[in-house]
Amino acid sequence: MPPNLTGYYRFVSQENMDNYLRALDINVVLRKLVCLLKPDKEIIHTGDHMVIRTITSLRDYVMDFDLGVQFEEDLGPVDGRKCQTTVSWEGDQLVCEQLGEKRNRGWRHWLEGDQLHLHMTVEDEVCVQVFQKVK
């Protein structure tokens, strides 16, 4: 049975965000700004339904979805694109596949103790973020 990811997580660290954003064709000014942000995550996980909020001082991003059901995700706030997104479990990892203009786009969330790990991929770039559970 997959873990329940419900909780509030504070930003701890990130690696390779600038290269990840460059692969998404984000302009240099916005890349520099985003690299300074320290986002928090709030996850509400009820059965096969999830809401993942990424919270920053600049803008929040909310994903509201049912596991295993493809939906059109509007990534306008991120990079101006839309894609067909499916989120499902692979073992203990929550895996998102985002089909659209960019190859190999998606992410993985998993827990190690009370830390939430996130690997975001696009093309050949991987951005790694770690969050600490606070409640």
From TrEMBL:
Subcellular location: Nucleus
Protein name: RET5 protein
InterPro entries, per database record: Calycin, Fatty_acid-bd, ILBP
Record carries keyword Nucleus: yes
Subunit annotation: Monomer.
Organism: Oceanites oceanicus
GO molecular function, one term: lipid binding
Family stated for the protein in its record: Belongs to the calycin superfamily. Fatty-acid binding protein (FABP) family.
GO cellular component: nucleus
UniProt keyword annotations, A-Z: Nucleus
